Amino acid sequence: MNRTRAWEILKAHGYKKTDKRELILSMFEETDKYLTARDLLEVLKKDYPGMSYDTIYRNLATFVELGILEETEFNGERNFRMHCEIDHHHHHFICMECGNVKEVSLCPIEKLEAMLPGYTIESHKFEIYGKCPQCNG
């Protein structure tokens, strides 16, 4: 997802373009890494000293709801990144040290479905956490 597409989605749902939203989206567009509300607040406080976590979380929740951002949780904290525009089903390896994200095309759901006869799987999420080659070195 890029910022232009994100604004198309926001406008289609009646959201106005604001400087704060633009800055948040630009931060996500500039990285493939997951960002936290704390990461955003550190940058936004420079231009908006009165910025609060509530304002950031409201925007993040809107972006997740509209499919602009993906959300995950690790180390007890919610993390966000731009929604992947890859059109095939995939999962991610997330480096816990530097935050780099690598696409993983393999999906274990087929094997799990065989282990759950009679069950209907409606959704799933599979993420791998560890250290990337650069952080391992």
From TrEMBL:
Keywords: Cytoplasm, DNA-binding, Iron, Metal-binding, Repressor, Transcription, Transcription regulation, Zinc
Required cofactor(s): Zn(2+); Mn(2+); Fe(2+)
Domain of life: Bacteria
InterPro entries per the UniProt record, alphabetical: FUR, Fur_C, WH-like_DNA-bd_sf, WH_DNA-bd_sf
Residues at which Zn(2+) binds: C95, C98, C132, C135
Note on how the cofactor is bound: Binds 1 zinc ion per subunit.
Cross-referenced CDD domains: Fur_like
Major site of localization recorded for this protein: cytoplasm
GO terms of biological process kind: negative regulation of DNA-templated transcription; regulation of secondary metabolite biosynthetic process
Protein's cellular compartments: Cytoplasm
GO molecular function: DNA-binding transcription factor activity; transcription cis-regulatory region binding; zinc ion binding
Chain residues that bind Fe cation: H89, E110, H124
GO cellular component: cytoplasm
UniProt record similarity statement: Belongs to the Fur family.
Name of this chain's protein: Fur family zinc uptake transcriptional regulator
Naturally occurring in which organism (per UniProt): Ureibacillus thermosphaericus
